[in-house]
Amino acid sequence: MWIQPASHVRPREIAWLWPGRLAFRYLTLLEGDPDLGKSFLALDLCARLSTNRPMPDGSMAPGPANSIYLFVEDGAADIVRPRLAALGADLDRVFVPDFSKHGEQLQLPRDLARLDDMVKHCEARLVVLDPILAFLDTKVHSHLEQSVRRMLTPLAALAEARDCALLLHRHLSKAVGLRALYRGSASIAFSAACRAEWLVARMPDGDGRCVLAQQKNNLASYQPSLSYELCPVIGAPPELRWHGVTDWSAKSLLNERRPHFAPRRDEAAAFLREFLKDGPKTSRQIWAAATKQGFKEITLRRAARRMEIDFRTVWQDDDKLTFWLLDCQTCPNPDPSTDLEPWLGPLCERFPAASPLDEEN
Prior knowledge:
Elements: E1 16-18, E2 22-23, E3 27-32, H1 38-51, E4 66-71, H2 76-86, E5 94-95, H3 112-122, E6 124-130, H4 145-162, E7 165-170, H5 189-193, E8 196-202, E9 210-217, E10 225-233, E11 236-246, H6 250-253, H7 263-275, E12 281-282, H8 283-292, H9 297-307, E13 310-316, E14 319-325, H10 346-350
Parallel strand pairs: 3-7, 3-8, 4-5, 4-6, 6-7
Antiparallel strand pairs: 1-2, 8-9, 9-10, 10-11, 12-14, 13-14
C-alpha cells in the first residue's frame, strides 16, 4: 500500500557523521568557488572518519569507518593520496577510483546500481561526489528541476538504504547580488533536495582565511560558521588549519558590498555575542552596557548587521521596547522588571528615555 497512518511509522533519531552538519541517510551539498579547498575539506572528513578523530569543531566522529571519494579533477597518485596521508588518514579505509580499471566514468542515474555495489562492498559510511555535475549522465538536464530531481531522488534512496552520508560538491555561478541559496550553478533542485547545504568562501578581511558557513539546514538548529586556511608547505601538500568559530555568515560572505577590516566592529560583535548569549536583551539594556565599553551607535549597528541580529518590537504600557535576538532565539514576553534601570533613579524608571538603538533602519 502506498500510504499508511503516521502512527504506524516507527520513530527514529537523526544519526550524524558530523553532529549538526552532516547526517547519515541524507544528501548534503558543499559549494563554493574553485581553489578554496572544497576537496581538501572532504578529504579531511574522510581522514577523520577513518581514524575516529574529532571533527573540526571538536565533536566526536562515529568512526573508525570507511569512505568513498569519487572525483574527476585531481590525480589519485600525485594529489589525492598525498593529501590523505598529510591529513593523517588510514589509507586502507578511504576508497578512490582505480582509473586503470574502472573504464567509463560513473554516470548517474544510469550507474546507480554500480554505485550501490561500491558502497555495499566498501561498507562506506561517507560518499563524496566531487563535483556532482561531472557525474550526471547525458539524459540529465542540470538546469531543469524535474530532470535533476529524477536523478537525486534515487540517490537519496541509496543513502537511506545503505545508511551512509552523501556529500555533493557544486561550484557557484558567476552571478552576484543573489541570495546565497541561489548562487549555486545549475538548478535550484540541488539545494531543494539536499537536507543541508554548506558554503565555502574567502573571508574578505581574513588574510587568506576561508569560511565554512551554513546556507541551509533542515535537520538541526543553526550551526556556527568555522574559519580555516590552507597553508603552503614546500615539497608537500598544503596544511589545513582550522581556526574555530567566526561571525561571517553565508549571506555576508556572498554580499557584493563586503565589509572592510574593522577591529572596533569586531570587538562590538564579540561584545554583542557575549551579552546576548543567555537570551534576548532590550536595546536600552544593550546601550547602557555598550556605552560603558565605549562603543558608538554606528559601530553597534554595523556589528549587528554582520551578525544578522534580529530585531523585534513589542509594546508594554504604551512604551515601545526593541529586543535584539541572536539567530534561533525567540522574543520573550516583556517583563516590566527587565527594563528598569534602577541606577538612573525613580524618574527614569517611570519615564524611560529612548536610546539611539530603538529604531532599526
